[in-house]
Structure formats: C-alpha cells, structure tokens
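Researcher: Go.
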Amino acid sequence: MNRLKFFLHYLALAGVIVLGAALRFWHLDLKPLWLDEVITGLFSLGRTYNDVPLDIVFPLSTLKQIFTLKPDVSCAEIAHTLATQSTHPPLFFCLMHGWLKLLSHEYGHGATVPLLLSTDLRSLPAIFGVGAIAAIYWLGRIAFFPAVGLMTAAIMAVSPFGVYLSQEARHYTLPVLLITLALVGFIQIQQDLEKNRQTGWRVWLGWGVVNSIAFYVHYFFVLAFVAQLVTLLTIFYWRRRSLKIHTWVGLSLTILGIVLSFLPWLPVLLGHSGRSETSWLPSPHNVAPLYQTLVGWLLMAIALPVESQPLWIAIPSGLLMLLFGCWLGWQIYNFFKGKTQLTASGGRTQVNPSRFKPLSYSAIFTLGSFTLCVLLQFLAIVYLLDKDITIAPRYHFVYYPALCALLGAMLTIGNAAKELPTENAQENFDGNARTQHKRQDRYLLLSPQSSVVLLVSLLSSVFVVSNLAFLKPFNPLQVSHHMNLEPTVPLMVVVGYHDSQDVALGLSFALAVEKIRAPRIGDFEPEDEKAYFAFLNAKPTYDALWQNLSAIQTPLESPLNLWVVAPGLKRVDYPQSLALAEPTSCTIDSTQHYRIGVPYQLYRCR
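Model: Structure:
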C-alpha cells in the first residue's frame, strides 16, 4: 500500500506539472507584445534603441530588420546596453539572447522574425514558470510535508497570476523560481536552528549562490533578500542562548559573499535609480496602495473578465471575485483561529494549527514573517519614496512563492487532520510533523475548500490565456484593430516620442498592426507596403512634431488614414487639420479618437 501511495503521489505531481506547463504554453502568441516585452525583445536580440529609425517614415517590413537576432553580440555588450539605455540587471537578457540563438538554428540564421517573436520571447519565461512549480513543491515538502508540497504545486500550477507572469516576455518567472529556491535554503536553515542542528556548508553555499544570481536578474530581489535576512536575524535573536559560533560564521560568510558578488554592478544600480524610466510610477493616493495590495493577492487565485468588458459582464465578474475573496479570507481566518473541524466516526472536535510542532507552525511563522517584511518594504517604497509600486500587480512576484506555500499549508493541514481518529487527534498532533502524517505524506488530500480554490483558479487561468483577464497594458491588440479600421486604405501611423519608452510603445503598436496586415510568415507582398510608421520628436512641445510632419515625404498616395499617437497630449490639443508634404492635407475625424493609456487620433488625408 505504501508503494502505491508513493506512486500516486508522484503521479499526481507529474500531472500537476504537465497541467501547469499546458496552461503556460497555451496561446503564447495570442496577445501582441506590449511596451515592456518590446524592450525585452530589442535588448535580448542584441539590439539597441539606435537600431530603431527615428524621424523618418519606414514601411512595416522594416520591423524584420529591427527584430532580427544579432547572434554575435556578447553578454558584456548586452550588459553595457542595459547599463546605458535601461534600468535592469543583465542576466535574464543574456539568457534570453542565448535562448533566441538556440531557437534561430531551427529557422535558419537571422530568421527570427516579428511574427514568431512573441512565441520565442515568451517561451523561456514559460519554462521558468514550469520550473517554479517543481521548486514550490520542494519548498512545501521541506517546510511542511509532501502533501503540502503537492497542494502548493497545484496552487501555483493553476494560479492565474502564475500563468500571467509565465506568458510575459519579462524577467518575472526567473526571479520567482530563484526566490522559491532561496526560500528552500532559508527554511532549511530555520529548521536546523529549530532542531539545534548544524547547518551544512552545502546549504549555506547553495543559499548564497541562489541569492547572488537573483540579484543580477531583478532589482526587486533586494526586497526578498532583506526579508530573509531580517527574519533569520529575528530567529537568531530568539535562539541566541543556544546558537553556536559556526552558525554566525556561516551566515556572516554567506552574506559577505552575496554582497561582494554584486559589487561590480552596484554603481550601475545606483545610476539606474535616478533614471526617467521609473517616473511612470504615480504618487500614492491615500490608502489606495492598501486595497491595491489586497486586489493583488486576490488575483493570485481568481481573475475573471472585468477589464474592457461591458458592464453586464464586468459587474457580475467583479462581485464574484469579491465574494470568492471574502470566502477564502474566512477560511484563512478560521485556520488561524484554530477552527479547523475534524469529522470522524460521527464526532467533531477542534484542532489548533499551532499544535503542529515543531515543524509546521515554525514554517508558517517563518514564511509569514518573510511575507510581512516584504510588504513593509513595499509600504516604505510607496509612502517614503513616493512610488506606488502596488499599482502594478506583477510586482507582487517578490513574495508570491511564500503566499502559495502558506495557502497550500492552510488548505492541506486542516484536511489532513480529518484523516486522524477524533479521539486521538490532539495526541497525534503533538509529534513531529513528518511522523504524525505518515499516512498522508505520499498523496494529496482534496477537501471541498481546496477543490474550490483549484477549480476557480483553473477557470481563471483559462480566461488569462484567452486574453479575457490580465490584459496587456496599453492593449496593443485593440489599438491595432482601431488603426486597421479600413484594411484596404493605405495607413500611416505617427508616434510622438519624448523618450525611449514612447519609442518602445510605438513599436508594440507597429508589431500588432503588422500581425494583422501580414498574417503569414514572409507575406510581405507589395500591398503590405501600404502601411508605414514614423517616430517624430515631440520635444519640447508637439508644435515641433506638427511642423516636422508637414515636411515628411511619404510614398503613400491619397486617400490614406493617418493615426497620430501623442503621449501626454489632451484631446482638445489635437489640431483640426494637418499638412503632409504637398499636396496632401489631413482632416481630423472626431469620431475616431481613443485613449488606452495614451491618446491616438485618426486624420483622413486627401
């Protein structure tokens, strides 16, 4: 029987990983690349902003040249580009460059074209996302017992937030994976302290290496590292009488190694902190960051169609999400209040989760303290630095693995308790967690509560991959459909730019339009040259752009549709008419004005 349970346990784990992989790779190319993903594409392909044609008109076919891989670019060159043109550490982009080189062999040298770019760029984060599922299983198993590991892996596998991050061509799933691995070492150190056991040098080394690597993947990992350090020092203080010198030496040497490993990039980080690319974060509005954080938590478990939906869909979906959040919050409240009910032989008793000693309760405290430390740092950034990072749910990735592990533990521990005879429940909960759950540790116990959470999250993930939830910022797909209002009419799009962010935004619109007007790979027939783009300098004011536009020579013949994307411009400030090179003049179409993050206006030219 034990062998059967062992087999079923790992069969279930394999099924969870396969399900998580299927969700993450499903419809990878459905959504156009948005601004941040375009930045990933440029730098990972070995390109820079200097490769983008500015202040001239170019056809959509030029996108093939802009987004073609430069295989000979080194990681050092990519790092230099990021140091001077972006605000990110280099490791993820170097890995992505290597991944694209690997994929390019399949298509032929230099054959990575825009029509494949979304799949190519998003596939590597999806792989890291699948790896995070396996890693979170390890974390749940180490911190609690195997059934918790399996439940935690299932939660992450179907989490709409996890699927959303995995389908972003950005450096989020790699730090999620690394944070999870760091928490494994973190929990192992905590358990060694709990049992007065010496932490092996391999644990210290592994924990230090993972933390060092993560610093070169995303700057927000600093928050995770500080949270680990504060929690460990708190535990050290409580156990200061029993601590041995080798524990302090191990911690000190590991921290020293981590700090020294990041010193070469530290001046770049300090330079990045003052760059304009972070100016998009707004100032906090009273208590808005608090409820935005709650919404971020909710989106980790449920995401129904709310964005850009008609009211008859958005309102019921929002109410259902709120009700689910209240229900889940009530389950968590009951757990911490010790209201877990055991039903066996017709009897009923109550068990306090804090009696899961010495392992489970301490792990809950440790992961909870880590999460609390990260949240306090979030609030410090929001209210002290005046940068509301809670406005973007994706930044909650820093403590996402810890929340998955905590939720998995809460849903599993109470359910595992049901398997114990009522009359012996309290006695059985007093032993070591691995011993007391000997019968439960090789398979996943599904309670009605955990089943509801998993099914709701699975449905939400289907909405995510279907582009009904977690819509891309600036919604390039919808913008491209607006711009392609009349597919047979020649199209020209002018994007006013103040900085590189505006250029990347314009490129995301260009890629989306190109996907509609040239739906097949290599389909760049003459009619496709009826679509042109131009990036025109809008500094110091848009008056300079209107003047430059009048001198633009376009190969398109009238009539043509001219769309002007003007970040920061109010609708009333769009001129009623615009002049292109003689003899073309353009008149505003007041019925075709939109704003999805930035305004864009149609002019009809004759």
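Model: DSSP finds 23 helices and nine strands in the chain.
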